[in-house]
Amino acid sequence: MAVFLWPVRVYYEDTDSGGVVYYANYLKFMERARTEWLRDLGFEQDAMLRDHGIIYAVRSVQLEYLRPARFNDRLAVSAEVVDYGGASITFAQEVHRDAEILCRGKVRIVSLDAASFRPRPAPEAVMTLLQNMMEGT
Asked: Is 46 annotated in the active site?
């Protein structure tokens, strides 16, 4: 499966008093990359809510911080699907500065019914696309 990359610039608001990216902001960068990955595939989250009553939420996160990013750095955030099921998608994600990995982790998201917040299978079009991507077709 192809790795999706999304560019991110570090703004002053992303940094802490030491001038480095505040640890929680890496999660925001990864969230943006996953949202843009979905958008790049032709799926908008507001349309899935409106048309299917589906929202996505993070179920679990594992992160490893390796090097600090700093104000004004140009970063690339990756999103790669490594597993999926009826109501979940697991991503391997990394934050890079040039060829250097700054942060990496796995993020598992779940498809939820917007009214009940109970797990619900993703729309069929999303599942078909994931299956095709994982099979390389």
From this structure: no
HSE (CB half, 13 Å, CA atoms) of 29?
A: 32
Q: Total structural domains in the chain? A: 1
Q: Which domain holds residue 104?
A: 4-135
Per cent of the chain over pLDDT 70 is 99
**CATH number of the domain that residue 28 is part of:** 3.10.129.10
Catalytic choice (14, 16, 83, 98): 16
Sheet order of strands, 88-97 included: 4-9, 74-84, 88-97, 100-113, 54-65
Give the Cα separation of 38 and 85 in Å (integer): 16
pLDDT in tens, 98-112: 999 999 999 999 999
